[in-house]
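Example 3.2
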Amino acid sequence: MKTTSLTDNFDQPFALSAKEIADYDDNGYLILEDFLELSSCEKLTKDAFEFAKEDIHNYLSFHRELPSFKSLITHPFLLDAADQVQRARMVPIGSIFFFGKPNNPLENGSLPHQDNYAAKAPTGSYFVVALALDDCDEENGALGVYPGSHKLGELPFTETKNFVFDTKGKLEQCFPIGNEVSIPNDLEPKVLNYKKGSLILLHSNTIHFASKNINKDDRWRKMIYMHFIKDGDPFWPGWNARRQIMDRIPRRL
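Structure, written as tokens:
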């Protein structure tokens, strides 16, 4: 696969192989290694730190504040990949950025959960694409999944609070993200290993989680999760996320 940047010429569409699509269908996730070149990853990281300054925590909707993140969420190759595995034109509606600072009290990983509890979209319509801005493994709290769990449909969950904001909208407390689901006994978790610049396509029904980053070697786990909806389908905007549709290129594949 050709590594791309935030500013490449995108005349030719980005086609996944039949095996990649089959792997996604079977496992409920797909890792595309070396998707984004390292200089573009560094640009996103630099912009995130300049925006946050000393307030290092999870951020909703960087794509509305920072042009580089808008370029990413509307990246033609990223959209091509999303459209192919979802068999639909996928429209960007939201994002959340994790700095993943080691031992940060304002970042506490996530519970095993499915994603559509937040958007309340029709089953199979909501979709997540994540870009890694650091090398990630079990040591610094990489994304973990339950392969094949997307085939179970939407499971019952325990509703939990994710964030607490002050009266000015500043984050003052963060709980583990997600409404926790019960894990069927026949499923085994898998903590993923992936490099900076990798793209992860994640079915909204795939049970996933991430441990709090508690490593002692100053290994961060910066990652941007981008949220999409099938063109024309309804979704709940959310009081904090304020999801909203964005313009994007026509479907190419």
